[in-house]
Task: structure prediction
Amino acid sequence: MKRFLSLFVVFAMAISFLSSPINLFAAEPVYKLGTTQKPDHIILTWQDDPYTTQTISWRTDISTNKSIVQYVKETDSLSFPKNSLSQEGNVEKFVSDLGEMNLHTVTIKNLEPGTKYVYRVGDGTNWSNTYSFKTEPKNITSFKFLVFGDSQSGLPTNPEYGPWEKTVQNAFKANPDSKFFVNVGDLVEWGQYYAHWNNWFKAAEGVVDTIPAMAVEGNHETYNPPDWHTTKPIFFTSQFKLPQNGPQNLKGQTYSFDYGNAHIVMLNSQEEEEKNINGSILEDQKNWLENDLKNTDKTWKIVFFHKTPYYNKATRTNEDIKKAFTPIFDKYHVDIVFNGHDHGISRTYPINNDKFVDNPSKGTIYYVTGRSGNKYYYDLSSKVWDAFFYDPQDQPNYIVVKIDKDKMNIEAVKQDGTLIDSYTIDKLNGTDYPKTILPPKYNETKLVVFGNMLQQPLMPTSPKKINNKWYIPVRAFIQYLGGNVDWNDNGEIRILYGKNEVNISIESDSATKNKTNINLPDKVYLDKNITFISSDDLNKLFDFTYKYDESTNMLMFTK
Result:
């Protein structure tokens, strides 16, 4: 009987457990802030010139209210910390979702250019380990830096930064002579969820405390749990002490600095996320960018921002960013623009005024930098503007930029060290390698939608010009986008695209869109049983914009 009762109790408990609405194995882990009196999250940046200053930041618990850096030249480091120099800085309280902490910042000044220093940080009692940094040498024209695409986890409630750790550590191990690195945004998945920052910093130990991390804000830095609403990127700007020379409302988000013979500009592309907080940040940056580029005499002009004007995602465009920034790049001949956001690796032809040109001396190269973290996409593709494309689904990657006087070499490298792409610009000789070979001018006009060229068997015929207006086969266009076109018995044509239903008729210049009457700029046209619709009609019905590129004979549509 006792054995029977025991089995019955076990069975009842099992049934109760299985039927319970609480799944213990699905419970989210509880993350802790993890601060102590000992400094951690030690990171180098520059707020002033790299020749004679070094900014160092770290965090502690809120009981530690003093910020001290002890430092000495490496040549005098045998007795460190005895006979060391010291400098005090600022401490500020920072409130995160996991609790309060103190953030400490010291900018050491009057350093000697081209000199290696050892240092430690603390409060006079609790000290960090000993690290090192090196100031920029005078008149340097040959140097190297690293670029990392999106390092985010891709998992909002799981701060998985193992892939980022392996990428950043492998990159620095392979390139220990790098002077600094840039992360082009989306450092973390949820910018205002501190568990992600804890793991991001932990993964980058040994790198961010040795070479400056000059970061760029991405859209994910503005996101908040649990509903993804956007705010100012407070966690980002509080932890990354960056130059404050940008527009007034974008301090620490937009900035520029010089290193060697390069002028480097960091822009904020988060118009969509910040317009209700900061107003039109693109407009605010245009005048600043113009003045910034106008007043540099450096050999190389390099720009970083997150969202790319020349993208690889299927239909995700950034036309407002392109319109705001690229004319200024053209005017002052920016050599190269590095972007993230799409998690692919691509290198455009040189581009000027949104047209492909045959030499980098005539235009700007736009380079999408791939991914350094866990997240990748399934809908990337090479676009008509790409001279090179690679989809890094197999493993993360990083970029190595080497400047040697009038030459710049850019290499995309897999996490395991495998070379993906190598491209060199030679300003002195006006050449590049591999040499730019532009696409041909096609005999038949090609239809391009979101950078993708539509070809047979999808395309029954090419776009046509009728009465000086471009017409395209509507079925091929809509079906490519995942919509549908049906011909009804009453002669009407029904177009289903996204949430929209449009009904039109041959030889008619009117339509209904979601049961609302619309007057169209042009009549619908039928030729050899193929229905054509004008480019202006597509704009009226679905907000598509277009341009015709005469050099390639391509009719390009985007949104």
User: Anything to note?
Assistant: The chain has three domains: 32-138, 139-433, 446-558. Residues 2-19 form the longest helix (18 residues).
